[in-house]
Amino acid sequence: MLSTDATLWPMIAHAALVFFLYWLLSRQRFEAVQAGSAEAGHFRENREEPPESRAVHNNLKNQFELPVLFYAVCLVLYVSTADNGGTVALAWVFVLSRYAHSYVHLTSNRLRYRRPLFMAGFFCGDGDVGLARGLVGSELGYFSLASARHVYRDRRARRE
User: Fold this and answer.
1) pTM, 2 dp
2) I need a surface site. Which of 74, 94, 116, 153 has the fewest CB within 10 A?
């Protein structure tokens, strides 16, 4: 299969969302301390999140659940050169659903809108996993760390 670096861009776009959420969480915690609704020491062990930053904190935690599988699948597809236009499109839909889910979570937080966005990402991620299994299985017969290193080394040689 023809493999491109296009598989990496959705992962970079999701990482940008995570960095933005960290910045927003830091800002909201700082404002909570300034307003007196939280003490800086509360964040040492993070037992209790102030109401001002709770939604961002929860949303940030969400970015390390399902998206972890997304990263694993994208990297397997990339290293095995089994990525293609379909898998890249699914990856972009997944990332866009994470952006939309975060927007709803941080604004209205209405489950009526949040759940369908989560499920859209879930099914794209699940579809991506299914594509990865099928493509990697048919391309390589099996996938091991040794074969991944071999494919990666060959891919680097082709670029140089």
Assistant:
1) 0.77
2) 153
